[in-house]
Specification:
Layout (H helix, E strand, L loop, with lengths): L1 H28 L2 E2 L5 H11 L1 E7 L2 E6 L9 E8 L7 E8 L7
Parallel strand pairs: 1-2
Antiparallel strand pairs: 2-3, 4-5
């Protein structure tokens, strides 16, 4: 009977891997896509969630934030602009390192 137990363990591991892969792909597929949203909808989403990853192009995305509380202590907020369906320059914010020119 050890073989049967081993098979059950293998099935459980395989199921867990398949589930993880499915949810990882689903999360990416459900990422908000700014070019298909209005500026107000993007800003409302950020306000509601506090911090959200938003796609700005087919393979481009970034983390946008509501306020300083979403940043690390060594970061500050930085205004940024992204293109939305109704505005080419929609104001959003993201975290920026305080002592660097690098954002993120």
């Amino acid at each position: 009977m050890p073989a049967a137990g081993q098979t059950m363990l293998q099935r459980a591991c395989l199921s867990a891997i398949v589930f993880w892969l499915g949810t990882a792909g689903a999360g990416a597929a459900q990422r908000a896509y700014a070019p298909a949203m209005t500026c107000a909808a993007v800003q409302a989403l950020i306000a509601a969630r506090g911090a959200v990853s938003i796609a700005t192009g087919p393979q481009l995305y970034d983390q946008y934030i509501r306020d300083q509380s979403a940043c690390l202590p060594s970061q500050t907020t930085q205004p940024d602009f992204i293109a939305t369906a109704d505005k080419p320059h929609c104001l959003v914010y993201r975290c920026k390192w305080r002592w660097s020119n690098h954002s993120h």
